[in-house]
């Protein structure tokens, strides 16, 4: 079974600059391989409609629904105490040591302090998260807002990084997604130290010059969204 890895985007339409579908489309073009649809407060029919809109811009089979109802799909991401439904792919949120053998992957959080949930914690750090997940494929969630932090999670053994705020709030979700996903995959593949800055906006002398994101020319189709 293929489980989520690389850059995984969690949705939050309230944080999104422009329409949620446009932000997700741009992030996918930038390298996000999976998307988890949250928006649990929407009426059921509206949530199903949004699921269908997102399914048109997310790679086939890579859209996961938060909650036990897959909304016509075949993948869910559960809260810690949710029962496991009969679907193809099941993930679960995890915040500490627990039995996780009934799921295919877990998110472990918070890895770092997070702007989206101030005061949520304490931050575990990537190495502790790896211990919590054990042999279960895990995604680092919480405060992964830069390529440098994504590289730290890759070095600790994360299968991927789950990112919400840094993508949803971005003026250039394509660029943020490209930066995080490229550095994560490079660090995973090579095991070499990341050349990426640790935090958004930071630069170091090894980071390539960029118009929007390292290594990506301005004429790439970013699927940009309105920043208003």
Automatic annotation (TrEMBL):
A Pfam cross-reference name: TMP-TENI
CDD domains listed in its UniProt record: TMP_TenI
UniProt cross-references to InterPro entries, sorted A to Z: Aldolase_TIM, ThiamineP_synth_sf, ThiamineP_synth_TenI
Domain of life of the organism encoding this protein: Bacteria
SUPFAM superfamilies: Thiamin phosphate synthase (SSF51391)
UniProt keywords, alphabetically: Thiamine biosynthesis
Domain Thiamine phosphate synthase/TenI: from-to ranges: 7-167
Keyword Iron: no
Pathway: Cofactor biosynthesis; thiamine diphosphate biosynthesis
Region entry Disordered, spans: 194-216
Annotated function: Condenses 4-methyl-5-(beta-hydroxyethyl)thiazole monophosphate (THZ-P) and 2-methyl-4-amino-5-hydroxymethyl pyrimidine pyrophosphate (HMP-PP) to form thiamine monophosphate (TMP).
Protein's name according to its UniProt entry: Thiamine phosphate synthase
Organism (species): Paractinoplanes lichenicola
């Amino acid at each position: 079974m293929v489980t989520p890895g690389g850059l995984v985007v969690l949705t939050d339409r309230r944080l999104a600059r422009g329409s949620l579908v446009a932000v997700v489309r741009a992030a996918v073009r930038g390298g996000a391989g999976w998307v988890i649809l949250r928006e649990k407060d929407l009426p059921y029919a509206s949530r199903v409609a949004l699921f269908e809109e997102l399914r048109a811009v997310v790679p086939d089979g890579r859209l996961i629904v938060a909650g036990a109802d897959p909304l016509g799909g075949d993948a869910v991401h559960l809260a810690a105490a949710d029962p496991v439904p009969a679907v193809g792919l099941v993930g679960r949120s995890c915040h500490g040591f627990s039995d996780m053998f009934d799921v295919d992957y877990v998110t472990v959080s918070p890895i770092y302090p997070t702007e989206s949930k101030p005061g949520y914690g304490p931050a575990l750090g990537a190495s502790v998260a790896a211990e919590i997940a054990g042999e279960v494929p895990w995604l680092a969630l919480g405060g992964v807002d830069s390529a440098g932090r994504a590289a730290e999670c890759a070095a600790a053994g994360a299968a991927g990084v789950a990112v919400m705020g840094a993508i949803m709030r971005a003026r250039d979700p394509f660029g943020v997604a490209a930066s995080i996903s490229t550095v994560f995959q490079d660090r995973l593949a090579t095991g070499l130290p990341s050349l990426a800055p640790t935090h958004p906006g930071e630069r170091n002398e090894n980071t390539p010059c960029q118009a929007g994101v390292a290594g990506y020319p301005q004429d790439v189709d970013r699927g940009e969204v309105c920043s208003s």
